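Researcher: Next entry: Transglycosylase domain-containing protein (Solibacillus merdavium).
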Amino acid sequence: MKQTFGYIVILCSIPLLLLIGSEVWKEIGKARQHEQLITQSIELPEVVSTLPINLYDANKDIFSEEYTEWSQPLALNEIPEIVKQLFIYSEDENFYNHIGFDVSAIARAFIANTSEQSIQQGGSTITQQLVRMRYLSTDKTYERKLMELFYAYEIEKTYSKDEILEMYLNEMYFSNQVYGIGAAATYYFNRPLTKLSLAEIAFIAAIPNSPSLYDPIHHFENTKNRQERLIDKLTEHGAITATEATAYKDEIIQLEVKQKTQQYPSYSTFVLQELKWLIAEQTGYRELIDKTSDKMEKEFLQLELQKKIDLILRQGINVYTALQPEKQRQDEIAINRILPNTDLQASATVIDNETREVVSIFGGKDYKKHDLHRAYQAPRQPGSAFKPISVFAPYFETTTGTKNSIINGGPYCIGNFCPENYGRIWYNNVTVETAFKNSINTSALRIFNTVGVDTAFSYIDRFGFQSIVDKDHTYAAALGGLTYGVTSLELADAYSSFIDGFYSPVRSIRKVTDLTGKVLYSWSRDREEIWSATTTKTMRDLLNATVTSGTARGLYSASGYVGAKTGTTNAFKDYWVAGLTKDYTTAIWIGYDKPRSMDSIESSKIHFSIFNAITD
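Model: Predicted structure:
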């Protein structure tokens, strides 16, 4: 009976809605286009709220909040009764009696609008306002208004009055990208809704009527004036006395506007990227994308993946990370202090040797949120810093050679590839250790030729080098000559295999949960043995020898062990140092975003100073 009555009311209201104006029959024609909506059930679109993403450090403290909309939905029983009264009395006194719209209110609104020849006055119920927020534009046209009635009626059939009121209170816009009464309380007063006074509740309840006009940050007095009118509404309906109303109006309103927690942007930006990698991995999209060679299919899969990620992020999640906040802070201060006041840039990644987690990361000097993150977004040629991965470890792993084996350091060509040694110094027969610690290119190329390109890359490809491509499978790779290069994140990740010979991709994320604490995603911590115990010990000895008597002299650590390898590319465009101490594995790059020679600052050893500062 209720449904039949609803249809009759809608049909009867159409002539009334279209009575005013010179284009009556044109409007009736438009209305007939919606006949199906009257005779069939309207399928309401799915609505997904946007909730915050909270990033937690290793101490389980929030260090960054990521959201475009501030939203904290509450159950209706968590919302004080006075809040419900404020909105019902001011917006829709007949809320619990109508079927989604109020015919008498609509009639009053249309009559009032006749003189202005446009739709200005509302007459909208709470249900209609919810429809507008969820499904329709705010255009003031009769066609949109008619659609609003159909949707409102459908919502009333689908949900109870209390459910509609709960959705309404949680989805209203409170200016400044704040949605819902609960979020408004914490945003404007930094307290939960239940801890606000009636005066404060009435103050934020004033905002949704016109979020621009009643924005309390920019138009405080406007908001205060409307607050007082709302308090009068409560008095009119007997919710409070006149004496109480006066006291509430006189109460001083002191805003305490919430500021986003946005610490350590280098780390949080990286975490958000790793989060996308994690979701891609565990939803199977990464495997599908990697397997397909069809460009259009790859693009389609990437689009589908992004939709999946967006949906997950909108639902609100907690991301628990390995960030050591004090170390991150100290490392940022140290690197920014060491870098000169020029456009010289740097990136650095620090890994905890015990957990294989990224505990500190540096994306660039004076890094701002979502700038180019040089630690993972800007691959550069690694030079000789790549040799431990590409040449020496594979050599010890696949041959009987030792650090005392003899290798020639004189001129050497493979085809037309004829590298020179640093300073154009040529050597006779030297030990592998000497070739390593003095970074003799021709010796490294001879060893690489012994190992073979395919064998060498069978090891290189076990690590997470995203920018290494098939055409890098050449002899130039022995010396770090790559098409794009590597990042400090990737190089530190590969060097972590020299901790004990085992490799597990380094991560910043420990787990991802929904807002109830249910674990949604976490990385597998499986480990793979890359290097034998003998190879690992030999590599650690060579890295240490490079620090004590080779190209890395000047590095130090109080931890009891330090080993490293340096890298310099052609024309001094990139300086690298990568290595280990007892506690940390790190890789550091310095250079200019637009590559140019750093010959003039070579003797400053800026990358050495950074290494010493962040591994201490």
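Model: Note for the record: Residues 295-314 form the longest helix (20 residues).
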